[in-house]
Design a protein that fits this description.
Elements lengths: L5 E5 L7 H9 L4 E8 L6 E9 L2 H11 L3 E2 L2 E2 L1 E4 L12
Antiparallel strand pairs: 1-3, 1-6, 2-3, 4-5
Length: 92
């Protein structure tokens, strides 16, 4: 579920750069930030990252258009990023 403009992007090629991610998502809407999570010690990609769009509508469109799309030889996983603001109120 997409509840904010921030998206989780998984199953990335280890060769993908933040600019690759930025360019890919720019085709769907306006990208605020694109970051790839990397190992602290060797700076190698962990194979996932986060993209923040300027609006929730654009984030939802990005999930529809880019989830399961082949990118640099791998099928992307694109979903709404889990937001920490809601967790403290969660009473499961």
């Amino acid at each position: 579920e997409v509840t904010s403009p921030k998206l989780y992007v998984g199953n990335l090629s280890y060769d993908a750069t933040e600019s690759d991610l930025f360019e890919l998502f720019k085709g769907v809407g306006t990208v605020k930030t694109a970051e790839i999570v990397s190992h602290k010690y060797n700076e190698k990609s962990k194979g996932f990252g986060f993209v923040t769009m300027t609006a929730i509508d654009e984030a939802k469109r990005a999930v529809v258009e880019l989830h399961d799309k082949e990118f640099m030889g791998r099928k992307l996983v694109v979903s709404g990023a889990k937001t920490s603001e809601r967790e403290p109120n969660y009473r499961g």
